[in-house]
Design goal:
alpha/beta; about 250 residues; globular
Length: about 250
Amino acid sequence: MKMLEMKNIRKSFGDNEVLKNISFDVEKGEVLAIIGPSGSGKSTLLRSITQLETIDSGEIIICGDTLVSSTGYDGKAQYVSKKERAAISRHLGLVFQNFNLFPHFSVMRNITEAQRKVLGRSKEASEEIARKLLKKMGLENKENAYPCELSGGQQQRVSIARALALSPEILLFDEPTSALDPELTGEILKVIRELAEEKMTMIVVTHEMLFAEGVADKVIFMDKGYIIENGTPEEVFKNSENERTKAFLSNYNR
């Protein structure tokens, strides 16, 4: 079952086209890693899926629901209604690279606030879910702490718990370890590996090549707004015949 379909996506900022005819799909239970140099369009692509950016043309289908298509006479992107967009967004969970926790909320409230406001869960139900997720993240003793009292790795695990609390069908990560010290990076990659073992559908924009090679089912390499290569980790990392892909990967010790 296709959980995400991206068809002929184009996006420009002024005269700078940052996504150039991007097409790919993600099946249920797959982990897709998106790699590439800075400025290649990776984060813009993720933001387009989560509606933090709008596309200029193309089609996005999420869990069978069409978010946007270019069916008009002018070929420009036509989004569905605001109500439909909100419903489609509930299929997705997003983990930011800089955590984006509310600094004045406790860990517990950071995880329960959206559950109550977006999903309408009761205080008791949302707190029960939060406690289960905090235990899963190894943070069961941190529910009353505030973000400033946590390490970067702990804050990122709280942000993952917050995303999971909304029961998304697809979980997206935007360079989830880029704001962390190297010794804390392993904490987050371990959590993502465990979610992959549970067959959580995930899209991960990452600079962690070992993770992309070892955990992902599919890998996309982007450069200058294009998908240069799309295949299995074996195809991209070990058997690529594309010179740009090989040049990029030569900078990493794997």
